[in-house]
Amino acid sequence: MIEVRIHGRGGQGNVAAAYLLAGAAIGEGWHALAFPAFGAERRGAPVAAFARMDRRVFRRRDQVARPHFLIVQDVALLHVPGVLDGLRPGGGLLINAPREPDATALPERHYTVAATQLARTHLGRPVPNTALLAVFLTLTGLLPLDALRRALAGRFHGAVLEANTRLIEAAAATAPSGAWAMEKADAAGA
Amino acid sequence: MPQALEGSQAIARAVALCRPQVVAAYPITPQTHIVENIAKLVADGALECEYVSVESEHSAASVVLGAAAAGARAYTASASQGILLMGEVLYNIAGLRIPLVLTCANRALSAPLSIWNDQQDSMAVRDAGWIQLYCAGNQEAVDTTIQAFRITQETELPVMVCVDGFTLTHTLEPIELPSQEDVDRFLPPFRFARALDPAQPLSLGTLVSPDWFTEARHSQHGALLAAAANIEAADADWAALTGRAWGGLLEVDGPAAARIGILTLGSISGTLQDARAAWPDLPPVRLLRLRAFRPFPAAALRAACEGLETLVVLERALSPGGGGIVTAELCAALYGLDAAPAVRGFAVGLGGRDVPLETYRRAVAAALAPEGGEFAVLDVDLDKLPEADRYPEAGPCAAPPVDSESSR
Backbone phi, then psi, for B209, in 5-degree steps? Predict the structure, then answer.
């Protein structure tokens, strides 16, 4: 079982990112759930969403307490208490930031991508979520990038889909493929 | 191939497959996405239906009452304060024996204000005369919604389909949407024998004297009890068509040899099932899930308790000053039974508090404890309260010690 927590700000497409990730997994035959954290719900407030995915069917519906991966859509959220809480030992932190943050308290496995900049270039809008997902899938190798493209095609059409497809391809190309690949035993759903 | 759908979106699609003729709703979190999706299906021309936007839940319930009374297949949805504002009309719909379906996206009641999940809202209207079905997951919510339309027209009793807010409504997961052909085969067209018709004038809901009120209540109560057979038949027929059954009135899952049982309603049950698999060294546990709360399946519960020494109830609501609502009804159903299990009732997961896997171990520990009270709030954190607000009267502190290896 793989558990991911996504942090962002209300209105930033945080739940949408979790839905896209779980939707990509479902399209690949996985069992997956995506759901919001139960907290503040207003534009600009720090919010979180979860994706839980496994190749086997599971039934639990509790909130994710010990994620394998964190995706942080806004680097300023690293200063919000609790954002890094519960990350499993050896877990990965993916950060959207224009440059590597100099925080010393980051976990060993972390990666920074200028996703907002990439989104501005390819979408013309500062929406970093799909670029972050592309980098996440490239780093972890959990699902092929094509699975994300298909999940996007379930939500978007026409020019928006084309721009997002270009965005995820460009974002994926910036990241080292398989750098966060999990041990086979973990990926099988330990 | 299942689709990745948000629960609300899946429920909206299920409603559309049932070909409703009138939908009236007022948006309220966490029901909003359901009615937004239905409104969009209507606006896109994918669903031929009169969608009535109203200014309050009282009106939403009144519109569907009138529509169904005129012979239309009608649907509405609400939650929390919206259910309370509908309250007067909910009793009228049931008393008039109007067939319609309502989705309750279960949410806590104010005050304090919470938009998050518990089941206080549907429990608050449990005596209104509606059938109440509680869903464990979104596939069940889809299937139960379709079953509800058949149950309501067979019984002429309104059906409330209860789905945990956010935990189900806002969760995306794999869903098998049935085909239109299968739904049409399962759900005959709606023909309401008492439909209002100017050609054959009929009065509904008129003033009755004490000569008749008692008889109306008697037959309403009896009709609800008799509806148990329709609920079971709908689930069985649906299973024959799709291969999916949801337990009829009561889902029983676990070994006959179990001496401990846990009774729940709604989405907690999946978490308990996975927790049981995660801790195989604990004593065997039989998990019972009330799918129907009205009618209350007392006979099925008594049968399901056979061999149990202790039954723990985990419910997402409570009656302040009384205790557990489901707990009290369970105790009444077991009263006088030889070898009835001891009952330990707990409220849990109120106002959106997470129900983690660990809850299962706490429930098992409560079952194994030599003594326990009748009812307590399982996951209350007394340290957050000033000394004066910690009441020993509110039940024993039920939390057994938790070791460090708690998260799985």
Answer: -85, 170
Q: Are B172 and A62 inside 8 Å of each other by CB?
A: no
Closest CA to A130 of A159, A169, A100, A101: A169
Nearest to B357 among A22, A35, A60 (CB): A60
The model's pLDDT over B51-65, given as tens digits with 9 standing for 90+, comes to 999 999 999 999 999
Partners of A23 on chain B (C-beta within 8 Å) are: 4, 172
All structural domains of chain B with their residue ranges: 3-242, 251-394
Specify the CATH number of the domain B3-242: 3.40.50.970
pLDDT single digits (tens) B182-195: 999 999 999 999 99
Q: Of A78, A87, A1, whose CA–CA distance to A46 is shortest?
A: A78
Between A and B, how many residue pairs show a Cβ–Cβ distance under 8 A? Answer: 75
| Helical residues (DSSP H) of chain A, grouped into ranges | 14-27, 115-123, 129-140, 145-153, 158-173, 184-187
> Cβ contacts (< 8 Å) between A190 and chain B: which residues?
none
Contact at CB, A62 and B115, closer than 8 angstroms: no
| Domains of chain A with bracketed CATH | 2-179 (3.40.920.10)
Q: Is pLDDT at A189 greater than 80 in this prediction?
A: no
